[in-house]
Amino acid sequence: MSRATFPRPEGAMTAVWALACWLLSLSQPLSWGEAAEGAAAPAQWLLSQPWAVLGAALGVLAAVWGLRATGRAGSLGLTGVTALAALAWLQLPPAQGAASAAAGFWLGVLGLAGLAWLGIQRCAALQGRPSDGVWAPLLFGAWVLYAWQLLTVALDVPRVLLPAPALVLEALWLHAATLGGDFVQTVLKAVLLGWALGSGLGFAVAVAIDRQPFLQRGLLPLASLSSTVPLVGVAPIAVMWFGFDWPSKVAVVVLMTFFPMLVSTLAGLQSAGRLERELMHSYAASYGRTLWSLRLPAASPFVLGALKVNATLALIGAIVAEFFGSPTLGLGFRISTESSRMNMALVWAAITVAALTGSLAYALLVRLERRVAFWHPSVRSA
């Protein structure tokens, strides 16, 4: 009889690496204070370091679990046990800033890194359910935040250089009212209005150029010229023309979002198939009917793509424009003012609000694209 062979599960060597790190961490001091005092008795060490014992035990369990070929339940279970080990390791004195980390602590961190990578790898391979595609990016983001918190505290990184996520969350909570006013000033007034005006103007000019091709020779060079003007040069001029409040930021955003929408809409209007256009011509369809029934549907993926790009450009443009003149409100004003005061936790809190706003806007536009342009091959494949 031939000997049965069992396939090695994916990431088995990573699990072996994590298991070795966790076992070695139990034999090494966690902080330099323990190393200076000398090795303690095993029983005394177990009583004095309950969080270390719990974290290492959970890490060993997760590593052994990772050696098996697991499916959905096993992958999610591996992630859960690893998360519990990470929370236990976060309670140790080096992770709290109460002691200097030694070899045992860093071996545990290496074990966590291996298990985190293995969990992301296993969850990324899950298929069959709509939620399966969400696990890997969520886990990756969560582990990045965890590593940020752990390393900045354990390595005693100055807050001026990089504050820990816990400090950023504290600043978000304590200054929620201030950041809310900044959000209204920057996003709801400058970004939203400028994005709508700039995109709408670019779309209208594109349709006009498509209807009257001779306009292309005059308007396209001007539009291209406007897109090459540096933002740091336009923002002070806009402040001088429209004042320090949100209208000057709207003007900057309109200038930034006009050209991408113009170019994308023109490309989309020209993407309609030749056979379809000839069919509409054989039916004696007017330009308006052809535009509404054929060319605009064909251009919808291009228009929505430009809207997604402009959403990011509008947010960046409004924030940068606030650096050159703004009332006492706005995310850009907050970043500029608090950075000069070395209050970097609040600076990062304002950056977090801007990043979450941009991500949410992009996600909403992606959902809109899937509903409007569901027929397009790029959307169907996604």
3D structure, described in words:
The chain contains 18 helices and no strands. It has helices at residues 12-25, 32-37, 42-48, 50-66, 72-89, 93-96, 103-124, 132-154, 165-174, 176-211, 215-228, 231-242, 246-269, 274-282, 287-321, 331-340, 344-372, 377-381. Helix 1 packs antiparallel against helix 7 (103-124) and helix 10 (176-211) packs across helix 16 (331-340). The model is unreliable at 1-6 and 35-47 (pLDDT under 50).
Mean pLDDT: 81
Question: What structural class do you assign from the helix and strand content?
Answer: mainly alpha
Give me the number of helical elements: 18
What's the β-strand tally? 0
The helix content, as a percent range, equals over 70%
Query: What is the terminal-to-terminal distance?
Result: 48 Å
Task: Write the H/E string, N to C.
Answer: HHHHHHHHHHHHHHHHHH
What percent strand? under 5%
Shape: flat
Radius of gyration: 28 Å
